[in-house]
Each structure stands twice: as structure tokens, then as C-alpha cells.
Amino acid sequence: MTTDQGAQGRQEQEVLRRIERARGRPARLRDERITLAHGAGGKATHTLIEAVFLAAFHNPVLERLEDQAVCEAGGVRLAFTTDAYVVSPLFFPGGDIGDLAVNGTVNDLAMSGARPLYLSAGFILEEGFPVADLTRIAASMAQAATAAGVQIVTGDTKVVERGKADGCYVTTAGVGVVEHPFELGAAQARPGDVVLVSGPIGDHGTTVLVARGELGIESDLESDTAPLAGAVAALLGACGKDVRCLRDATRGGVATVLNEIARASGVAVVLDEDAVPVRPQVRGAAEILGLDPLYIACEGRMVAVVDAARSQEALEALRAHPLGRDAALVGRVVADPAPLVLCRTAFGGTRIVDVLVGDPLPRIC
What we know:
Layout: H1 3-23, H2 43-57, H3 60-63, E1 69-73, E2 76-85, E3 91-92, E4 95-96, H4 97-110, E5 115-126, H5 131-148, E6 151-160, E7 168-177, E8 194-197, H6 203-211, H7 229-239, E9 243-248, H8 253-265, E10 268-272, H9 280-289, E11 302-306, H10 311-319, E12 328-334, E13 341-344, E14 350-352
Parallel strand pairs: 5-6, 10-13
Antiparallel strand pairs: 1-2, 2-7, 3-4, 5-7, 8-11, 8-12, 9-11, 10-12, 13-14
Helix pairs in contact: 4-5, 7-10
């Protein structure tokens, strides 16, 4: 190595150390007003959660900051989650706010390895909203619940004055039973593990954006909204405790999920850009908008961190399931430079993949 190369390497390491120190500081909410970025699932969302909600509701279960809480009651391990859906438009190719609400809730439960059982559904309706549209949404939810093997067993309805909402918002809660004895979570990743995705990324966010009709883009792309509990069961059945972590890549996309895992586990993740499956329509729309597909939301894709020794079995299990037939190994977990996510580009370079900043695609779920 030449003197110049050595100096450049030391400079790069110093930059990484500064980034690590900055990201390790306690969250401080500097904003005086809520912005759209606070709902995007990225850096602003994390700051809001940690500085406001975690500070107010502090407890060991919430501290894990998973997509669901795993609690014990009467000797039974239960997974519990809650969510809200404000997608615009309400109906889009491949789905609508109804099946999105069911699948999103089921998937949050499934990422703990739970078997989803029951959901609640709350509706906030604007005066003047068409009953025909509400009937269509309810039918879609019923169909999605049947497909996911869950029942909607309770709910609530509120109506607000015309102009005080945007047609229809849906809130949900879900409960499932955790039947395996091991722990899944963002803090379980270890150096040497591999990172898998269950299929092409970015379909949902791109579909919703195109469906708004603001870009003048025509596409046959459809949302990937789907229930992942079956694919999770197949993966756990094949690899058991060698599955470390599961996350559905919704708001903030794969990039934000991997940053959460790196931070919680104190590891680094190195992605191979060429290995990440992205449909041409998604890549094309992302290029037009100046977006990175790694940050675009999915609603039927999961990220799995698995012991490297079981990677082939994990891929085979996912690919044997209809929702995982295009599963791919996209990266590896390493020790340093923690807690960063790096991406090896198609041009042979390496870039940092940080947590999402701002909200390039508001109201996609």
C-alpha cells in the first residue's frame, strides 16, 4: 500500500467513526411541529418515537422497538401489534386500503414468528364518503382476512365533518400466538450471518405513486400487498433458531430495516447492489424521481437475517413458497464498521446506506 493509499484509508475510517459517534447520540426532537417526515419510517420517525413516545411510555417490552410486542399471559407467548392506514389513493392496482390494513397487521405479527389469529378494525370516515366504497373496502378486508387465516372480531366507527379527513382511514390491532421457543428480533443479528429478501423490492410504493397520476407514467406494476405468515412458517420450519431476525420492509424500505438491525445488534451490514432484486418498472420510476429503490416501501416482502450455514436451506424454503419464489441473498452481517449499512455498487465502489431522511413518498400505507 502506498503512503497516499494509507492516508486515504485512515481518512475514510475517521469519517466512519464520526458518523458512528453522531448516530449514537440520544435522540432529541428539535422540531416544533409535526411534518410528513415524522410518518415516513425514517430518521424523523425514529427520533419522534424515542424522544416522545418511548420517553413517555418507557417499559422493557416497548424498548425493543419491534413491529410488535411479544408478551406472556397465562404461560402463553402472545404477539400484539397495532397500526393505522392513510394510503392515498384508497384503491390502487393490486389492492386497496382494506387488504393493505389486514396484510400489514398480519405481517407485523408474523415477523415475530407468531401465528396470527385475530384482528380489530377501526374506521374513521368523512361525512359524504360513498357507502359503495366503504362496502368495497370491507369486502376486500374480509377476503384478505380469509386468505391470511385470521378473523376480524371487533372494531369501531367514527365519522367526522366534511373536510376534516380524507375519505377513509383504517386502524387495526392484531394478536397472534408465538409457538416457537426462540427469540427473533433486530438485536439478534451476528457477524457472519447473511441477509435475504423474499422477492423484488419497491413494488408497493412505486405502484401507489404511479396510481396518483401526478407523474404521467403508465405501468402494469401492481402492489405486492400479501400476508407473509405462510412464508415465515416455511422459513422457520426449515431453519428454526438459525433465523435471527425478520422484518417486513414497509415505510423506509429495505434500507431503513437494515439500519434498524445494524443499530440494535451493534453490527454492520454489507449489501451487494447487483444481488438486490428490483423490477425494471420500479428501477425506471426511481430513476425518474431520483429515488433509491432500497428506500421504497414493500407490503409483501420481508428481510430475513439467517445463520450463513443455513443460507441455502433458507433460500430453498422461501423459494418453495409462492410469495418467496424470487428470494435472494443480498448481503452479509459483519462486525465493522458498526452500526452502518454499506452497499457495494455495480461500479465496484462502496457507499453508505443511511436511514431515510425526509418523506419522498408520503401516504403509501
